[in-house]
Structure formats: C-alpha cells, structure tokens
Amino acid sequence: MVELAGTVALAYLGALLAGLSGVRRPVARVALALPLGVAVYVVTLLVLLVVGVPVPPVVALGLPIGALTVVVARRRPDQLGWGLGAAAVYGLMMVAVRLLAFPRVSPDSFRYVEAGAILRDSRSLDDLTGPLALTRQFTYPAIQALAAPGSYVRTFSALALVSAVAIVLVAARDALGDAMPPPAISLLVVAAVLTPNRAAYHALYINGHTLFAALLAIVTAAAWIAWKRPEAAGRWWLAASLATAALVPLRPEAVLVAGFALLPWVLAPAVPLAWRRAPMVALGATTILWYGGGPLRLELAAGRDPDTSVVLAVVLGAATLVATAIAPLWWLPWSLLRRVVVAGSLAGTLVLAVLRTDEVLASVRATVENLTGAGYWGWFWPATAVLLALAWHRRPDAWGILVWPIATFPVLGLAVAIARDAPYRVGAGDSFSRMLVHLLPVVALAFLARFEQPVDPGGKGPGSGAAPQRVGAGDAPPGPVH
Amino acid sequence: MHRYHPRWLLLGLAVVVVVNLWQSATIEWGTPSHQRVLARADGDRLLDLVRSSSPTARVRFAVYLELRPFVAGGTVVVPSSPATLEPTLVRGLAGADVVTRDYDPHLDPSLADRLRDDAAFTATLRTSRGELPVVGPDDPAQVLVVLVDAADDTLYVVTPTALRQRGADVAGLDLDALADGRLTDG
Known about the structure:
The complex is a heterodimer.
Chain A: H1 2-20, H2 26-50, H3 57-75, H4 80-100, H5 107-122, H6 130-136, H7 139-144, H8 156-176, H9 183-194, H10 197-204, H11 209-228, H12 237-247, H13 254-266, H14 273-301, H15 308-325, H16 334-355, H17 357-374, H18 380-391, H19 399-419, H20 431-435, H21 440-450
Helix pairs in contact in A: 1-2, 1-3, 1-4, 2-3, 2-4, 2-8, 2-12, 2-14, 8-11, 8-21, 9-21, 11-12, 11-13, 11-19, 11-21, 12-14, 13-14, 13-19, 14-15, 16-17, 16-19, 19-21
Chain B: H1 7-25, H2 32-50, H3 55-65, H4 87-94, E1 99-100, H5 109-117, E2 121-122, E3 145-149, E4 154-158, H6 160-165, H7 175-179
Parallel strand pairs in B: 1-4
Antiparallel strand pairs in B: 2-3, 3-4
C-alpha cells in the first residue's frame, strides 16, 4: 500500500506539472508524469536536507504536491482531473507489475535499499557517507526512501521503462507531427528495443537504470525537437530542466552524460535563450547542490580528503553556471562545437589509451565480449550499430541530434572506467553493460525518426508543400525549422 | 519529394526483434516454481536484512543473494568473495561443522591442482537434508559452486568457470551450463 501511495503521488505531481508547462495531450501528460514527479520530489528533498531541515521523504513529496494542487486549483481546476488520471494509470500498472512479475536483486540493490532506509530513518545526508554516497548517489535511494520501514520499492523500474517508451512516442509525435510513422512501424521499433533479454531484466531489476533511460530520453527528445520543430520546444524546456536535475544525482557519470546530451539544446538558435539556459542552470545548480552539499561537505566535516571526482564535479557545476551567464557562448554554432567536442573526446581517449593502456584494453575487450553475448544483450548492439550506420545515408534533418548521445556514449563510458580505476569486466553485471540500458529509448527515437513519412503536399504539418530540407547533423537551419 | 521509408530498415528491425526473442529464450530464467520461490525468498530475506544495518547483516545479504533456499531442491551456492564469508553462517547453512578456506583461482595453485587431481570432490552439498542440485543465478558472474571435500568436510567456494578452465570434472554438475548462467534443473 505504501508503495502504491508513493507511486500515485509521484505521478499526480508530475502530471500537474506537465499540464502547467503547456503539455496538453493526455498521453504526453501520463508519459511525463512519473519522471517529472520524481524530479520535483528529489530536488525538494535534496534542497531541504542540504540546508539541514530534517524532513521525512514523504513530507518532501507532500510539500510540492500541496503547493501545486493549490496553484492548479486556482488557475485551472479542470487540470486536477488529469493529475488524478495519471495517478490512476501508474497505480494500476504498479499493481499489475507487483502481482505478475518478480523482482531481480543484486548487492547493488541492497545498497540502494539501505541508502533509502538511511534517508528515511535519519532524515539527513550525514549518514550517507563514503562509497554509499558516491556509488549509489541520491535519486534512486530517495525513491527507495518512500517505502515503508523495513520494506522496499519493487515495481519502479518497470514503470520507468513504460514511461520511457511513452516519452519516445510522444516526442516523435511532437517533432514529426503528421509525418509520424504509422503505428505498425512504431510498434516494430518499440519491440526492437524492448525484446533484448536485458531490457526485460532491467524492467524488474531493483536499480535506477530505467529511470536514467527515461530522463535521458526527455533531454535528448527536447534537444531534437529544438532543431526539428522549435515551435514545440516551449513544451519541453521545463521537462528537460527537471529531467537534468534528477539525472545529476542518479549516477556518478550522469553529469557528463547530461551535459553532452544537452549541448544541441543549448545551442539551438531557434529556441528562446531563456529556455535554452534553464537546463544548464539545472545542471550546474544540482551538481553543486548534491556534490557540494553532500559528499564534499561530509568528507570535509569528517576531516578526510574528498574524492577528486567530487571536487571536479563541483568545479564543473560552477563552470556550467558561469558558462550559462556568458552570453556570447550561446551563439556558438552547433556544427563547430560538435566537431570540437568530438575531436577533443577522441584526443582524450587517445591520451587515456596511451597513459592507461592496460585498463583501456581490458575495458574494450570486456565490452566487446559483453556486446556479443556475454552481457546477455545477444547481438542487439552490433545489429543496432550497423543499422544506425546505414541509416546515416539520406538521413532526415536533425537526425544527427539523436545519434549524438549514442555516439558519445562509448567515450564517456571509457572515461568513467578510467576515473573509477576499475576497468569493465565480462558479464551481465558489468557497469557499462548495464549502462547501455540508458540508450534504449534514444535508439528507439532515432529509428522512429528515420522513418519520417513524407507529408502530403496539400496537407498541414511540417514540410507541407516542400521537400524536407537536409539540415545535416550539425548545421544551423537555413531558416525557421519546419 | 524525398521518401524516408527505407524498407531495408524495416527488415533489419524485424530481424532484430526475431533474434532478440530467440536469444532471450535460450537464456534460462528458471521454472515458474523456482521463480516464485526465488522472488518470495528474495523479498522475505531482503525485508529481514534491511531491518538491520550491521555489517553482519550486509554480509548475510551478500551471501544470501547467491543462496537459493532449501525449497524445490535448490542448492546453496555461496559468493566467491571469501573475505565476505562469515564462517558461522556458512557452517549453519551447510548443516555441518565445516571449515571455510579462502579460495582465489588466481592465487591458489595448490587448490587448483587438487581440483584437477582429486577425485574426492563432489558436486553436492552435504547437509542434513541430503544432496541438493544446483539452481541457476540471475547474474552468471556471481554463480558459484560450493564443493565439499568428503574426506575432511572442507568447504570450497569456486566459480564454474575456474573449474572448467582447470579441467576439473565435477560429478553431477554441468559446468558449461553453469558458467554460461544456464540453469541445471534438479
């Protein structure tokens, strides 16, 4: 019952927020409800704990629910029903998953549950010390903290995965409009990314990977829409900002992954500057809040030297906020910056390969084995890489935005392996093998976008009356993006 | 008007779906009875363990994850991190007064030799409930086999991969299946 109450509360909160941000379609509200609700709850709890207010997690969830309910009731009382509707949908799904499926656990699962129990019982960050804070982070323990004492949240991963798939479909509809592929093709694409063994496993696995996938899907979708159909970006800037805020304290590599995924959004010239800045503020502020107010503060208070990665994260967060304020940076052409980032990443990888050859080779070998069977992915990733490479030819405009997070993922993964001083290993439990789940919705979006249907010249919608222009993966659009 | 409807991509995705389903089906998930038992046991034990934050509880949990409880003929398997083993716990699980010995396939060549040469090793766990077959894991990297030396009741914790690499012939165990994470039904 407690897990049910937490689930519907999160969905209700997120659905209200989606409505306030301009999302009107029912499917879109439901799709975004859970991740947005999680984001607001996590940020609220983090802020309160960092400033030293010892709140139970349920209060941190109740505060924004109460506040938003009052606001919505005054402005748009008809919207309250949507919140209840989304809550009902997720509630029913939660009950179904709980009755029909069985959780998968690992030592990491226990540590997340333990961290959640610490947050719930101690109402403080102070006991979330050392490896527990750095490896388990904050977002997923905060979700586990909503469980009853002595219990744990079992169904969240499945709900997050359903949300991720729904976000993909909603985003495709927003970006492509009438050019959206027919339902049969959408179903095929969704099936392609949900049928690998690991997708089914992670839907039941007590871990935060599917939530990461849903949040990354929101950020990537927003970036794509910013180039593909910028007039729709107004419905996505808040979601992208909140998703970024929830991503940062979800996993150690999230700051880098979110930063990379946001780059196309922040440099989209057709999107108003304020909307483009918002996720950057979320990225920088949350990074400083969590790493500075959490692990860094705790290590300094204990008289220990903080981990280098923690200090770097705080510096990166501050640099992000500074960059947000420097106006000229916002007019950098995406085509130039993309090439600089790619070149820099390749150069960095080369340097790492020279300095830490054994670790790099070990990681690469292990990853190759995992991607060809040992990681329980079957041949999904090699097949996907081939299809995406072939799809590059005659790609639709702005398609490269969707490939960007996929293409940069291996480099980021390698950087993570080097940073943590532990190469990747062979087996389904390996970190990088598990992290690949994060890309499933983005892959689905890329394939869906590749099936963009030509629009009837006499109809409405994007590209109506003209051949779609090839903007290219990184070029600024010649005019308003149709 | 450009057409963005590549049939080759449709076909490619359809093949991906078929191969995904086929490859997933070849990975043993366990029989339904095993799954329900695992889930119930996981849930029950997890609840017990999270109530305690002591190091012992964490060790017990680490051990438990690999335990497939004494139901439906499941065998107890113990994690390969000897440093986390709690002798008292292992003794209790085995139902006999056994001695644990640290085993590391990279550092213990004498034991590796014994595995090859000593025919006294069996693939059963001697407990008061008799011989128990092996139940497979969620994560094949964590599957381990508990071997009891019938001669002196010494408990050895080894990976099936290590056994296979050393050419050990362990009666009653399909090492290839275990190393690949596939269940061996009892």
